[in-house]
């Protein structure tokens, strides 16, 4: 480039890059569409994940039976628990074998730890829990004696105003 040409281009006015009408329409329509789709989709996403984001409430206890009815011989009691599983709410019927032990009242889950059948107390006259499905046996404390790989689960227990309250299920702490 000669010196003359260089001077000429330096004096030329700066040309701004103009947006074409087509580009303007594309940007405007694209932005509006994205805004409208976001407004419709975001509430749906929020609805879908909302139950998963809610904090789990602390373990709740359910009133089951008067303390005075509990004996050293295990007895089965049934009770209902309100459950919230994501979007689904239900009242589940649960059962527990409640017994008065040397260190207080305890409650065991009747679900066999082999394959989940329902156990029963002393059906064979040996003062044990027996499972009718494959013959699992458990002591009064829920210790597994045969077939089942683990002891029976235990409920959290709370005694208040003469009533037995049961909470969530935990691993057996007695054996
Ligand atoms: S389910 Fe109880 S022994 Fe198999």
What does this structure look like?
One of its GO terms (molecular function) is monooxygenase activity. InterPro entries: Rieske_2Fe-2S, Rieske_2Fe-2S_sf, Rieske_Fe-S_prot, TAT_signal. Keywords: 2Fe-2S, Disulfide bond, Iron, Iron-sulfur, Membrane, Metal-binding, Transmembrane, Transmembrane helix. The protein has 175 residues and is of the alpha+beta class. The chain has two domains: 51 residues; 109 residues, 3-layer Sandwich (Rieske Iron-sulfur Protein), CATH 2.102.10.10. Helix content is 24%, strand content 34%. The chain is built from two helices and ten strands. Strands 1-10-9-4-3-2 form a six-stranded antiparallel beta sheet, with no helix packed on it. Strand 5 and strand 6 form a beta hairpin. The chain is elongated and about 110 Å long.
Span from first to last CA? Answer: 96 Å
CATH topology (fold) name of the largest domain: Rieske Iron-sulfur Protein
Mean pLDDT: 88
So, the CATH homologous superfamily of the largest domain? Rieske [2Fe-2S] iron-sulphur domain
Number of separate domains: 2
Number of helices: 2
CATH class of the largest domain: Mainly Beta
| Unreliably modeled segments | none
Structure classification: alpha+beta
CATH architecture of the largest domain, by name, is 3-layer Sandwich
Bound molecules: FE2/S2 (inorganic) cluster
Main sheet specs: 6 strands, antiparallel
Kindly state the percentage of residues in helix.
10-25%
Number of strands: 10
Specify the overall morphology. elongated
Question: Approximately how much beta-strand content do the residues carry?
Answer: 25-35%
């Amino acid at each position: 480039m000669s010196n003359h040409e260089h001077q000429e281009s330096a004096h030329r006015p700066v040309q701004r890059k103009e947006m074409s009408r087509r580009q303007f329409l594309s940007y405007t329509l694209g932005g509006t569409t994205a805004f409208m789709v976001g407004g419709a989709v975001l509430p749906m996403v929020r609805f879908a994940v909302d139950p998963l984001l809610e904090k789990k409430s602390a373990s709740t206890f359910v009133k089951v039976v008067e303390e005075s009815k509990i004996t050293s011989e295990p007895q089965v009691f049934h009770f209902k628990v309100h459950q919230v599983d994501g979007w689904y709410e239900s009242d589940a019927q649960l059962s527990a074998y409640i017994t008065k032990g040397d260190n207080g009242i305890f409650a065991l889950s009747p679900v066999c730890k082999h394959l989940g059948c329902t156990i029963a107390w002393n059906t064979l006259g040996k003062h044990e829990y027996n499972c009718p499905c494959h013959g699992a046996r458990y002591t009064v404390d829920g210790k597994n004696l045969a077939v089942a790989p683990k002891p029976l689960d235990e409920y959290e227990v709370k005694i208040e105003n003469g009533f037995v309250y049961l909470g969530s299920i935990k691993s057996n702490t007695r054996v």
